[in-house]
Design brief:
heterodimer, A: alpha+beta, 2 domains, 6-stranded antiparallel beta sheet, B: MetI-like fold
Chain lengths: ~375, ~300
């Protein structure tokens, strides 16, 4: 249960170009912290720097209260799960689990006892005498997990541990890893490129892009209030729809992608930039029209693609150069080429500065509460 | 006729297969199978000077060889030679491979140097060693005299000759063993080492519990190949010592050569070849039986 602190950390391989720069973050004790980003964004490098497998070329890394920049990996009090699990193919599951304990010269009986405990926790008891090649992907993953748990280190690092599993198993392991982390109270730093994993597992997530922090925060806050267009399109599936927009002063209208015109409420006018901007709207905030829908909030779009996912329907349409997607609940019988009325509200828009990409206007809070549990104010 | 047509149609795959196999079947027959069976055949005969079978003598050639002190000496020398060269070559090659597997600047230079002996022919390197072993102008004796050690008659002293040939053979075989072992080392997943470093395993612990077990298939391969090679040593003997002095380096393949092409005793030479074949076969089978248990294939 240790804190991990990165102060202005950077990394460069050739002493000229930083592949990671200005990382400032404090990971709290017992926190499940997820590093997420597209491939090549430097998230694995960052994890390996924390583990001590990669040199830190700038800044300070603190583990607990100690500066850990030059500590060897085993002095950092952490365990790590690798993407390919890094199981020793010539050792049995039992030996794999106790490898780290054996290194630390623990007594054999005690090693066995611990291995047994952990194996029980992960349902590996029947496989202790097998070699890794005799196990399925999911079981190997559990062995890797068991190896990390048995070391009883306060910090655990995981580098895309679920990416080699099939979708169903992955969903199962997500909750399992989360459960174990909570029950043991370890500080978890978890790297993934999968935004679903990031959203569902993390207490907080950090989005990296090209070696720079894009945003750090609770998953739901990042989903609701993405700090810039990159985060907006990276988190959420399908991604947030983006388009260029301009504010037309005389009509008090926002012209989106030079096609849609949306009335701006009087009290919001002052907050809008006078130059062009990027607006974003989540696919679920493009609604079907109802009899009450005002005519001026309705747009007619031509459907270019339809996906019916059983309980929801996603269709795409062109807006200027961009392809937008809308997600409607339920099953809708829509055909490609149909012209549909779509309802959009100004309050659901996220507006980003054209130049800096900064979030200027947030969407309203769509969160709902179960009525008899409503949080007292 | 219809039955033939039926058979002809049904065997079309088989005929195609034979056609594909034909080139290697012909080559193997000419260069391997025929000489092999001819050798076995000749080992039961006394031959004339041109190598044609003359008198059938059954197992007499073998009985003669097993009783002959010359052959026993040759066997003993071969055994000693294998013992001298194989373990040392492999241990040295492993040591160099471990060194050259480290990620250091300019390591490519060392990798090239260590494997370079593979690129030199046995004849060329033997000539170089011949000079170095020379008692009066050779490098080794010069070195010994610098440190005031007594001079050694490397290739002329029966006590030293086999050791000298072994030393040069170790040097010649080092490159190949090194290259194979280095390849094996580079095949080991880097993550295993990273994982063990996080656990705090030291260098020798990693060597013992990760590197050697993971390298065991490669080690097994190189031990087998080296053993077979050592039993078949010929070139360096021919150039360095010609089997002398006083038969001390008369290894079995050289002895076969002498028997056949100098003494024109093709019968006994063939019998020796058959015995060598059986010995190598037994050693290899033994090695597979004993060694395979310790080998961890992925």
């Amino acid at each position: 249960m240790k804190r991990v602190e990165l102060i202005d950390v950077s990394k460069s391989y050739d002493k000229q170009v930083d592949v990671i720069s200005n990382i400032n973050v404090t990971i709290e004790p017992g926190e499940f912290f997820v590093l997420v980003g597209p491939s090549g964004c430097g998230k694995s490098t960052m994890l390996r720097m924390i583990a001590g497998l990669e040199e830190i070329t700038g800044g300070t890394l603190k583990i607990g209260e100690k500066v850990a920049n030059n500590l060897s990996p085993n002095k950092r009090d952490l365990s790590m799960v690798f993407q390919n699990y890094a199981l020793y193919p010539h050792l049995t599951v039992q030996q794999n689990i106790t490898f780290g304990l054996d290194v630390k010269r623990m007594k054999k009986d005690e090693q066995h006892k611990k291995a047994k405990e952990v194996a029980e926790m992960l349902g590996l008891t029947d496989y202790l005498d097998r070699k890794p090649r005799e196990l399925s992907g999911g079981q190997r993953q559990r062995v890797a997990l068991a190896r990390a748990i048995v070391s009883e280190t306060p910090i655990c690092l995981m580098d895309e541990p679920l990416s080699n599993l099939d979708a169903k198993l992955r969903a199962h392991m997500r909750s399992e890893i989360r459960r174990i982390q909570k029950s043991l109270g370890i500080t978890m730093i978890y790297v993934t490129h999968d935004q679903v994993e990031a959203m569902t597992m993390g207490d907080r997530i950090m989005i990296l892009h090209e070696g720079k922090i894009q945003q750090i925060g609770k998953p739901i806050d990042i989903y609701n209030y993405p700090a810039n267009p990159f985060v907006a399109t990276f988190i959420g599936s399908p991604p947030m729809n983006l388009a260029k927009a301009e504010f037309h002063e005389t009509d008090k209208q926002l012209i989106i992608g030079s096609e849609f015109k949306l009335n701006v409420p009087a009290e919001e006018i002052g907050k809008l930039p006078r130059t062009s901007m990027t607006i974003g709207v989540r696919p679920e905030n493009l609604y079907p029209t109802t009899p009450e829908t005002k005519e001026e909030d309705t747009f007619h779009v031509e459907v270019t693609n339809v996906e019916i996912l059983g309980n929801e329907t996603i269709f795409s349409f062109k807006l200027g150069k961009e392809e937008w997607m809308a997600k409607w609940g339920g099953q809708w019988h829509i055909d490609i080429g149909d012209s549909l009325p779509v309802h959009m509200e100004f309050e659901s828009l996220s507006i980003f500065d054209e130049q800096s990409g900064e979030l200027i206007k947030k969407t309203i809070d769509y969160g709902k509460y179960v009525s008899n549990k409503e949080v007292p104010s | 006729m219809t039955r033939f047509a039926h058979f002809w149609r049904k065997s079309v795959d088989g005929r195609a297969a034979i056609l594909y196999l034909l080139p290697s079947v012909i080559l193997f027959s000419v260069f391997v199978f025929y000489p092999m069976f001819r050798t076995i055949y000749l080992s039961f005969f006394l031959t004339d000077q041109t190598g044609n079978a003359a008198i059938m003598v059954g197992f007499e050639n073998f009985m003669y060889l097993l009783g002959s002190s010359e052959f026993q000496n040759s066997m003993k020398a071969t055994g000693l030679f294998v013992l001298y060269t194989v373990p040392i070559t492999i241990i040295l090659a492993l040591f160099f491979a471990l060194l050259a597997n480290e990620k250091l600047k300019g390591i490519g230079f060392f990798r090239t140097m260590y494997s370079s002996t593979m690129g030199i022919s046995v004849a060329a390197s033997s000539v170089i060693w011949l000079f170095m072993f020379n008692p009066s102008i050779g490098m080794f004796n010069r070195l010994l005299s610098v440190f005031d050690f007594p001079q050694i008659q490397w290739l002329l002293d029966p006590e030293w000759a086999l050791i000298s040939v072994a030393i040069s053979t170790i040097w010649m075989n080092l490159g190949f063993s090194f290259l194979i072992l280095l390849g094996g080392l580079q095949n080991i997943d880097e993550h295993l080492y990273e994982s063990s470093r996080i656990d705090g395993a030291g260098y020798f612990y990693r060597l013992r519990r990760i590197t050697l077990p993971m390298l065991s298939p490669t080690l097994f391969f190189i031990i087998t190949i080296s053993l077979i090679n050592a039993f078949q040593t010929f070139g360096q003997i021919d150039i360095l010592t010609k089997g002398g002095p006083s038969q001390s380096t008369n290894l079995i393949v050289y002895s076969i050569y002498r028997e056949a092409f100098i003494n024109y005793q093709f019968g006994t030479a063939s019998a020796q070849a058959v015995i060598l074949f059986i010995i190598i076969l037994i050693v290899t089978i033994l090695q597979f039986k004993l060694g395979e248990r310790r080998v961890h294939y992925q």
